[in-house]
Amino acid sequence: MAKLILSLNGVVQKEYQLTKERTTIGRKPDNDIQVDNLAVSGKHALIITILDDSFLEDLGSTNGTYVNGKLIKKHALRDGDVIGLGKHELKYINEHASADDEEFEKTMIIRPGSASAAVAAAQAAAAAAPQAAPAAAAVGVPPQAPGMPLGKLHVLNGPIAGKELELTKALITLGKPGVQVAVISRRPQGYFLTHIESDSGGKNYPVVNGKPIGPQAYTLQSGDVIELAGIKMEFSLAR
């Protein structure tokens, strides 16, 4: 299991196991990892953990988030990476990490302001999908794992019902920040839907086949109907 080791000036202060899909880091006590230092913002950074991989994202912090001395906005964590927050450091330990940073940087983000806007965003993403696979191939990442069928989302409602989005990327974010956000991750084991945030204390989970998925990653099956931010989409696997 992945973990973070918090240290200050080389002195280890605490270890944290990354057991949750969503781990917040910041100065405020309501964070999963509290770093009590004025150089650290109240809500400084977020780590999304899906299966064996963890993805770090800066949350607009005042002094920035660094990995191995480099300022980042988004970063796919690798074993041994050192996250810098002010004078504190968090060392990431995970020998099974396999995420690709280039794919994470190119993640498609759908941020609708309404149901119709969500469909329009899905249409734009679908239009860009043909360019997604070559971009991944350019950094040595195949569009899909060998022998793994390609996943697709088929929009079921709204003004462009019938449009399709090919799930060629390692991580695709869907929803509206502050309202309802989820990610679909592509791994050798299949496609997984994971709840990230919502506007009701984290309990407004995405719905699949009429039932909320809960806080854990949900393994998508061909024919599943996903409802998120007022949009219904059918997941399918190419045959």
Q: Biggest sheet: strands, sense, closure?
A: 6 strands, antiparallel
The structure class reads mainly beta
Number of helices: 2
- The counted number of beta strands is 22
- Which stretches are low in confidence, meaning pLDDT under 50 for 5 or more residues running? 105-145
Shape: elongated
Rg from alpha-carbon coordinates: 18 Å
Q: State the order of secondary-structure elements, H for helix, E for strand.
A: EEEEEEEEEEEHEHEEEEEEEEEE
- Classify the helix fraction into a percent range: 10-25%
Tell me about this structure.
With 239 residues, the protein is mainly beta. Helix content is 12%, strand content 43%. It contains 2 helices and 22 strands. The chain has helices at 101-105, 115-138, and strands at 3-8, 11-17, 22-26, 33-34, 45-50, 53-58, 65-67, 70-72, 74-76, 82-85, 88-93, 109-110, 151-155, 164-167, 171-176, 180-187, 190-198, 207-208, 211-212, 218-219, 225-228, 231-237. Strands 2-1-11-10-7-8 form a 6-stranded antiparallel sheet, with no helix packed on it. A hairpin with a 2-residue loop joins strand 5 and strand 6. The longest helix has 24 residues, at 115-138. The radius of gyration is 18 Å and the shape is elongated. It starts with a strand and ends with a strand. The model is unreliable at 105-145 (pLDDT under 50).
